[in-house]
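Narrative of activities, Objective 1.

The group set out to show that a structural description can be obtained from nothing but a protein's sequence at a throughput compatible with the screening campaign. Below is one input-output pair from the validation batch, recorded exactly as produced.
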Amino acid sequence: MSDTALIQAERGQNATEIHLVNEAGFADWSRKLSDVQRALLEAQRFTGKGYETAIVPAKPGDGAAWFAVGGVADPDDLSSWCLARLAEVLPAGTYRLAQGDPGPALHGWQTAQYRNLAYRSEAEAPGARILLTGNVNAIEPAIAEADAVNLVRRLVDAPPEHLGPAALESEIEAIAKAHDAKLEVTRGDQLEQNYPMVHAVGRAAARHHAPRIMHLTWGKADAPVLALVGKGVTFDSGGLDIKSATGMALMKKDMGGAAHAIALARLVMQHNLPVRLHLLVPAVENAISGNALRPGDIVTSRKGLTVEITNTDAEGRLILADALDRASEENPELMIDFATLTGAARVALGPEYPALMTRRSETADALIAAGRAHDDEPWRLPLPDSYVEWLDSPLADCINAPKNGFAGASVAGLFLDKFVGDGIDWAHFDTYAWRPTPKPGRPKGGEAYGLRASWHMLKARFGA
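Output recorded for this entry:
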């Protein structure tokens, strides 16, 4: 895709019009057309159903060669994805919406044109499709938000050999430099003292994929503290409790939580949100070697709690625990973590609804409302006290994963809750970070779920 901004200010430039119509209003709308135009719409089987598209020649003397038509649910109430299919199929060029301003559809117009061509030997980027808007103030925020989604996609799509812990560090380092943020990194055996569970999970990886934790800080020291934490397992073999070939196939995406946290942190800094930001990303490869973490091992966490390892494939919660404990030391007003944590969340909710767990109902309500308003709705799951006993160990303070198979997402959330400081307002996203089948504006591959919900909630809470 070209570097040209895909949405630009309306200044009366030459542009092809896009008309939106729904199935109920199609008959009345089409009466304004000529017989030839109606015949061509019929030939293209256009009826106004959602995501249908067509190209129609203009009437002689209209001053344009043709216009585009898109089917939507309601032309007067646009969503993020109303123009996405058009952005995928129209020829390169400049377009304007005939009925008014695109509003929320600016997002899908951009994300529909995302292409990852980095690994194609003879790939040619398609020409840009530019959409005009009269709302000049909406342009930069809309571009930044779409770029954040596409950053998540790019990071998750990257093969694990190209995006190991060191490469993930480089991504954060570049963002820190761009926004004058401070970055501290603890690597390799240095982790044993302060981040022992990050070290225990990542120590089996090859030297060039050595574990580390990145801690970025930004903003005024006296501003409210916002802590963002992301699970950065750059590849998950399952460890000694090894996954099947099928289970391992998509495990390059196990750093999807880190990708979300990084993208959200960049949005916070780009928009100068008045917070003291702490971004913590523990990054490991869950590999297999002679010194790999073993079932039955007991590991002491940064917090001092001991954890009996009942499943080496429940490693993400271990590295998150150390990071959440460190973030808690900053006494944040709000802490949000993102993780591709459990298959149980996917069984319950499928790929598109990120599981959300919070300590406070008002925080869940705010995130759900923001997500619903921006086509990124999470679904709340409980953190029931009655299930905490399932994490009991006869030898240690707790186990990392029970064997009963019940309420796996909530129990993983309860494990994390042990490492979040008392009284902290905390939200946990268990997200899939992957789209298994494409939809308009949302190609197959790495995907952001919960990112836009979190961003718009943060803007409302802290005031951008």
